[in-house]
Design brief:
Layout (H helix, E strand, L loop, with lengths): L1 H21 L3 H21 L3 H25 L4 H4 L3 H25 L2 H12 L2 H11 L2 H22 L11 H5 L3 H4 L12
Length: 196
C-alpha cells in the first residue's frame, strides 16, 4: 500500500509540475504549484520526514503561494504579450534545461555518503534533531553561504524598490508639526445680515 501511495503522489506531483509550466493562465499555474507542494509534502511524510513536510506546507503553501496568488491577481498581466517571444527563446531555454537535467543526474548518481549518514541519524533519533545535527555539522558552510546569498537578495530587493521617484509625493512631518494656527486658519469678520 505504501508503494502504491508513493507512486500515486509521484504521478500527481509530475502532472502538477508539468501543468505549472504549460498552463496559460498564471493563476492556474500558481494553483497547480500548490498541488505540487502538497504532493511533495505527502511524499516526505511517507519517507518519515515530518518536519520537512510541515515546513513545506506552512512556509510555501501557507505564505509564499498566498503571496504569489495575491501578486498575480493584483497585476493586470497581458498573457498575449507574454507568449510573443516564446519560439525565439526556445533554443536557449532547451539548452539551459538540458544542462540543469545533466547536473541533477550527476548529483543524484554520485551522491552516496551523506544519504547514508542522514539515514543512520534518522534511525537513532527523531528526524528534526538529526536534521539539525547534520545541517549544522556536515553542511554548516553551504548553510551559511545560502543564508548570506538570501541576505544579499533581500537587501537588493529592498534597494530596488526604495528608489526615489520624481512623481512621488511624500509628507514632511517636520513641517506638519511646526504649523501654527495662524498659518492654517484665517478668521474673517462679516457684517451680520438683517432681515427687512
Amino acid at each position: 500500500m505504501i508503494t502504491f501511495t508513493f507512486y500515486l503522489f509521484s504521478l500527481i506531483l509530475i502532472f502538477a509540475a508539468s501543468r505549472v509550466i504549460t498552463v496559460k493562465n498564471p493563476v492556474h499555474a500558481a494553483l497547480f504549484l500548490v498541488l505540487a507542494f502538497f504532493s511533495s509534502a505527502a511524499i516526505w511524510l511517507l519517507l518519515q520526514a515530518e518536519f520537512l513536510a510541515m515546513a513545506l506546507i506552512l512556509v510555501y503553501v501557507g505564505a509564499v503561494m498566498v503571496l504569489f496568488l495575491f501578486v498575480v491577481m493584483m497585476l493586470d498581466i497581458n498573457i498575449s504579450r507574454l507568449r510573443e517571444g516564446f519560439v525565439s527563446h526556445l533554443p536557449v531555454a532547451g539548452l539551459v534545461g538540458a544542462i540543469i537535467l545533466v547536473e541533477m543526474i550527476l548529483v543524484v548518481w554520485t551522491w552516496q555518503k551523506p544519504v547514508a549518514e542522514v539515514a543512520t541519524a534518522f534511525a537513532v533519533q527523531p528526524n528534526t534533531v538529526a536534521l539539525g545535527q547534520v545541517l549544522y555539522t556536515h553542511y554548516v558552510y553551504p548553510f551559511e553561504i545560502a543564508a548570506a546569498i538570501l541576505l544579499v537578495a533581500m537587501i537588493a530587493a529592498i534597494a530596488l524598490t526604495m528608489r526615489k521617484r520624481s512623481n512621488q509625493k511624500s509628507q514632511k512631518p517636520e513641517q506638519q508639526v511646526s504649523v501654527r494656527r495662524s498659518d492654517r486658519v484665517r478668521l474673517v469678520k462679516m457684517p451680520a445680515e438683517s432681515k427687512d
